[in-house]
Amino acid sequence: MFAPQGPTFRELAVQALSSVERGYDLLAPTFDHTPFRTPDAILTPVSRALQGMGPFNSGLDLCCGTGAGTDVLRQVCRERVTGVDLSAGMLAQARAHERPAAGAPHTAWVRADARALPFGPVFDLVVSFGAFGHFLPGERPGLFAQVHSVLRPGGRFVFPIGAPARPGSPGYWALLAFDTAMRVRNALWRPRFVMYYRTFRLADVRTELARAGFDVQLHALPELGRRPDGSPRCRLVVATLPSRQRSAVATGHLAEHAPGPTEAP
């Protein structure tokens, strides 16, 4: 599960008993050698899909970690990209891994809480990979409002979301066990470490994005395969800020553009 260069069991235990910020500061030097980093198998098809939607001028990688998603932005943005994260340790690793190339967009790294972004409406594209489990369901409306506030009219908020594990499958029980253990840990220990895999439900997320003022579409990522019922294993959520702002009622229409049958998360 972990590469030899990854963290030891003791290091993971110390991280798990820390706050989210401190935990990722500790994990940062070995993070890219863990399964927690978004794999290239997901990043590549997302990049390909974004190239079909762009080009974009400026992009923001929300909760950028060590910069894997920021590399995707460099492929589709012409002027500048920004990575924002709460962990100074993760940002330090992102800076260390950066390899400036001629003609590449300018890259900036900013330490900030995603729930209080220090930007105006200056981005054409916001992406995020694997970070939403760090936000409790009650925090999502505020998070989506923050993303809304930093996008220009017509800008897009894009992220992949995997199909839920089938009830009774090994993946289902593994995620349930992890979330249960995390809830017990947070009930008994402070500071809390918020990371839940089963709270980011597609149906809820679509509704909350629409309420935040986005037009929401889903696109299948065919490179990641299909489930036995024909539905995609992974979809790309594309939430667009209308060029002319409309009311939440007017933006409540949601379109499903992923081929094949849909499933309830």
TrEMBL record:
GO terms for molecular function: methyltransferase activity. Transmembrane segments: none annotated. Gene3D superfamilies: Vaccinia Virus protein VP39 (3.40.50.150). GO terms for biological process: methylation. InterPro entries: Methyltransf_25 (IPR041698), SAM-dependent_MTases_sf (IPR029063). It is an enzyme of class 2 (transferase). CDD domains: AdoMet_MTases. Its EC number is 2.1.-.-. Residues 60-155 form the Methyltransferase domain. Keywords: Methyltransferase, S-adenosyl-L-methionine, Transferase. PANTHER family: METHYLTRANSFERASE (PTHR43464), UBIQUINONE BIOSYNTHESIS O-METHYLTRANSFERASE, MITOCHONDRIAL (PTHR43464:SF19). This is Class I SAM-dependent methyltransferase. It comes from Streptomyces mooreae. The lineage of its organism: Bacteria, Bacillati, Actinomycetota, Actinomycetes, Kitasatosporales.
